[in-house]
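Hi all, long-time lurker, first post. I run a small reading group and we've been trying to get comfortable going from sequence to structure in the token notation. Rather than ask abstract questions, I figured I'd post a concrete chain and ask someone more experienced to write out its structure so we can walk through it together at our next meeting. Sequence below, copied exactly:
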Amino acid sequence: MIAVFLTSFNLSFVWYFLSALLLIGIEWMFVRFGLYVQHWWNYFYTFIFLLACFFSTLKWQTMLDRPRNSVKFWTMYLCIVFIEDTVTFYRVALFHTNLYSPGWFSDPIRDHIAGNAVATFVFSIFVTIGIFYRFRWYGYGLLLASNCFIDIALVHLGYLHIAPFWNLFYSTSLSAIMIVLYRWIYSKLFLSEEHLGK
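-- Answer (accepted) --
Happy to help. Here is the structure in token form:
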């Protein structure tokens, strides 16, 4: 979000360095108060990684002026992953609707985060393909049905636990609503430009 803010307002490179230093200061406080542990990572890596992200965002903005299909695809994919992760975070944190437990970590929260990340990344790829290639309604229906069947299989295998008040119909309905939102975002970002001949 900071990288998008810096790029959107065309702030000078000084702000890139100050923002990176600010985030390193926050990381230092987390380590100091025992909220975060560095094993092999150090502050220099954070600084370099943040600057790379900031400058990548600047480059991405210039590529969006006249985007190629690959830029459109990955921009839409990253938008979908961001929104899906945010909605899932609040849905799980506030209402405890579902919990992944693939068995990769002993800590159940880390296990859920890892399982949910894989599910989100995979689902978002297929949604992006559907939006990018302009699937018809039955294409999205097949996508939602496939996702529902995968969730049913994960529940039966014990990798996905769903709260008693939540069911797969709610998840599928929410996904359908989100797909409508993603199609609208794609049309606002890219299709309006195509009609203008850009």
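A couple of things your group might point at:
The beta strands are 98-100, 160-162.
The longest strand covers residues 98-100.
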